[in-house]
Design goal:
By secondary structure, the chain is an alpha/beta fold. Helices cover 59% and strands 12% of the residues. It has 6 helices and 5 strands; from the N terminus they run E-H-E-H-E-H-E-H-E-H-H. It has a 5-stranded parallel β-sheet, with helices on both faces. Helix 4 packs antiparallel against helix 6. The termini are far apart. 22% of the residues are buried.
Length: 197
């Protein structure tokens, strides 16, 4: 993760984006805002974000589809869904996609900060163990940076090749979740009808 974490907030309500910007900028984050799913996905093409927040209900591309496209392209990027419409079906669909959590409206500064820290800490790269008694020589520090860079490149290459398989697993899993939800609703409706009669 960079020294200044990059955050993208995708929400058709500009007030929500400004809330994230106000809270997180004060904490040292750089926040970009997009007012639609399409705009947010375009921003993803040009910037490597450390975390993305997306509203679940937007005109055009909704938050579930945004999360699906981001996870298919950048499975390592944490995605948190903002919702005022929390339903079991939406949460089940989002969980299958591997989103890193939900934050429900109305938002508070504490909620914004805590969910951001949680999502980022779950994806933070492991840091070398600190040893105050030993000071690394300059050459050792350079070697360590080179090793980390090589490890990061190897990880990104592996994720690049894994991304189609991850996307395929989402495509396979989504109908199963949909069928489960449909079956559950049908059983509940049948039970209510039976109880009435």
């Amino acid at each position: 993760m960079r020294n200044i974490p990059q955050v993208l907030v995708i929400d058709d309500d500009a007030v929500v984006g400004h809330s994230f910007e106000r809270v997180l900028t004060e904490k040292g984050y750089e926040v970009d805002m997009a007012l639609s799913g399409e705009e947010g996905l375009k921003d993803m093409d040009t910037t490597d974000y450390d975390i993305v927040f997306t509203d679940i209900k937007m005109p055009g591309i909704d938050g579930i589809e945004v999360a699906e496209r981001i996870k298919a392209k950048c499975p390592w990027t944490p995605v948190v869904v903002i919702t005022g419409y929390g339903t079991e079906e939406n949460e089940a669909r989002a969980s299958v996609l591997g989103v890193n959590g939900f934050v429900r409206k109305p938002l508070t500064p504490e909620m914004i900060e805590s969910v951001t820290l949680k999502a980022l800490s779950e994806h933070e790269e492991p840091q070398p163990a600190a040893n105050e008694e030993v000071i690394l020589a300059e050459t050792e520090a350079v070697e360590f940076k080179g090793w980390r860079k090589a490890l990061r490149i190897a990880r990104n290459i592996a994720l690049f090749f894994a991304a189609p398989f991850i996307a395929l697993s989402y495509i396979i899993a989504l109908p199963i979740v949909g069928f489960y939800t449909f079956a559950k609703l049908a059983v509940e409706a049948w039970q209510k009808k039976r109880a009435v009669s």
